[in-house]
Amino acid sequence: MTFNPIANLVGTKSTGSVQSAIALASQKTGIDFNYLMGQAQLESGMRADARAGTSSASGLYQFIEQSWLRVVKQHGTEHGLGWAADSISTTSSGRMAVSDPGLRRSILALRNDPQTASLMAAEHASDNKDAIESALGRDANGTDLYMAHFLGLGGARSFLGAMQDSPNRSGAAMFPAAARANHNIFYASNGQPRTLAQIYDRFTAKLENGAAGGAAKVGGVALASTTLGESGATVIPGNGETSTSDAAVWAQATLDQINGGAARVQTANLMRPTPDTARLAYMMLATLGA
Fold first, then answer.
1. CB of 97 closer than 8 Å to CB of 89
2. What is the DSSP string of 265-286?
3. pLDDT at 5 over 60
4. Nearest of 73, 47, 68 to residue 57 by alpha carbon
5. Which of 24, 35, 128, 268 has the most CB atoms within 10 Å of its CB?
């Protein structure tokens, strides 16, 4: 049987691919990795092929069709998707359209590609971040960005502005349509409407839990494209998934040696691991106390 380091340590290659894609998007856009991880966990459970049953939402970040076409039109070219961006036009009513049905399907299918979805989600968050900071006169955090994802940019600005002045204001009274569609968010289990501050705090907790849950673990070994070093600084492997995969092989080989088995060294680049690869492999082993 061919040894697959990612499958061996995590159980599925897709998890490593998703984490690597999110790490790359974070690096390229400057959007916080933990926020992107938390959002992906909250939206799709880290499943790149997730589909909503009640809307056109699909993929890791559950983009609906119009939102996806809009962000690809705006940011696709800078990420090698010029062919897609050039195919999208804006109608007189403001809707995004693609004249060729086959091409439209291909562009929408990109929502299920972890790397493209992560990049577009990060770019969308970056756009919202700039707008929120301009409106509120302060730095935007992950919860602020998620409010823009949840309520739209205009709704988020209204929500956050009102919360600054009246944190105990009823969220359902301010956003009745959103409350009807998301009863569990706007109302407590006893039927009492939640305040703006309570809704905001719940999203903060959900994002934090999502980011923590996004790092899949099997047998005590955490495989992540970003992790924390001893100083608490974020370490991102320089070669994305390749470095992560190499680190997994090195970690497994070391465990084999510890357990008396034969070391598994299969690729030439493992003979000279990069500092990032060696550091990540060390951290994987550290989780096991090896």
1. yes
2. --SGGGGS--HHHHHHHHHHHH
3. no
4. 68
5. 35
